[in-house]
Design brief:
2 domains, six-stranded mixed β-sheet, Rossmann fold, 14 strands, 11 helices, single chain, globular, alpha/beta
Length: about 280
């Protein structure tokens, strides 16, 4: 897509981990200053993340975001202020049961997300790692399949080593690709949501709610779970730290997350303080 130098962008949608957030899991002062300047200019700024809603709220409050935010890869859209649910697309019950059984039979560590909490059958190095990233601690249950019976599961994550996660993505795409979105957020996280719960479709839904044309949307992300929103947006931006597969579909590649790549996008395309 050709970058339009004089486009009047109305909405900026940001991934959190490894995009807006630095390696320290914080929003840098440069990113924050640029975002506040964009908001003051009238641009609607929101988040599209694989994180839980509760894990996203501290960053939303820091930035003063007051429009709906997209969480769980697009499976849950909630109002940032009232916390009212605007869209929830849980995984089909039969698929949830199949996925839990398969992961357990193959010895994979899996977490299930229900009512903005997550559940697993044991605490280990993977659950500890997730807790460090998310700031939220999970709940141990004796039998995840039994606990998930008759409950709406928003998302599952299998956590493993990056090389294995890449192999498992291909396996689960073959098994569930017609029923689930199977994607990678961080290199260790293989994530599963309903096939219609993608960031791209969620941004399309939110843009319709706010009466904003897709051409006026900027979406910024770094990983495979961001592909759909990068492809949907009028200006799809990949972070400088994104893998080649993500960079190739982007209209523009910015600096890395530790170089305030989000601020660079805002300064260049919204504030026009950076040359083209």
């Amino acid at each position: 897509m050709k970058i339009l130098e004089n486009m009047d962008y109305k909405m900026l949608v940001l991934d959190l981990d490894d995009s807006l957030l630095g390696s320290d899991l914080k929003i840098s002062s440069r990113n924050e200053e640029a975002l506040l300047a964009a908001i003051q200019k009238g641009v609607l700024v929101t988040i599209a993340t694989g994180r839980m809603f509760s894990s996203t709220i501290p960053y939303v409050e820091q930035l003063g975001i007051d429009i709906p935010i997209i969480t769980y890869q697009g499976a849950l859209i909630k109002n940032a202020l009232s916390h009212k649910t605007l869209l929830h697309i849980p995984i089909e019950w039969e698929v949830s049961m199949d996925l839990i059984r398969d992961s357990k039979e193959n010895g994979y560590y899996i977490q299930g997300y229900i009512d903005d909490k997550y559940y697993m059958e044991e605490e280990n190095e993977y659950s500890d790692f997730y807790h460090t990233i998310s700031g939220r601690r999970g709940i141990v249950v004796s039998d995840l399949e039994e606990y998930a019976q008759n409950r709406e599961v928003t998302k599952f994550i299998i956590i493993d080593e990056p090389e294995k996660v890449l192999r498992l993505r291909d396996r689960y795409e073959d098994l569930y690709g017609d029923r689930l979105q199977v994607t990678i957020s961080k290199p260790q996280f293989l994530e599963f949501t309903h096939r219609d719960a993608t960031k791209g479709k969620a941004i399309e839904c939110l843009a319709d709610m706010l009466d904003i044309d897709r051409e006026a949307v900027i979406a910024v992300g770094d990983s495979y779970n961001d592909l759909s929103m990068i492809e949907f947006a009028g200006l799809g931006v990949a972070m400088g730290n994104a893998p080649d597969e993500v960079r190739k579909v982007a209209d523009y590649v910015t600096l890395s997350n530790d170089e305030a790549g989000v601020a660079h996008v805002i300064e260049k395309f919204i504030l026009r303080s950076e040359p083209f």
